[in-house]
Amino acid sequence: MAGNDRTLPPEALDEWAKAASERLGLDPDQVPVSLILDLARDVAHGVARPAAPLTAFLAGLAAGRAGGSPQDIERAVAEVVALARSWGGEP
Prior knowledge:
Shape: globular
Number of strands: 0
Oligomer: single chain
Helix content: 55-70%
Structural class: mainly alpha
Mean pLDDT: 90
């Protein structure tokens, strides 16, 4: 795969997520890729595109500080998704 190709097929994204997780000492099976992609989409659409990676980092940091369980991740993501959905005045 070309290094400058910005569109990844799902299997390449899974390969990247696995490699990055392992590099960071994380269990790739514990990384909720779909949840994080949904978070990024909601923030990019509800706030601004540059807010998506920042928010993903913040949610991960909050989840890690809370203990890092799947429930901690889901809770942190739910909080920022709710904020993003209400950011532009939407209920």
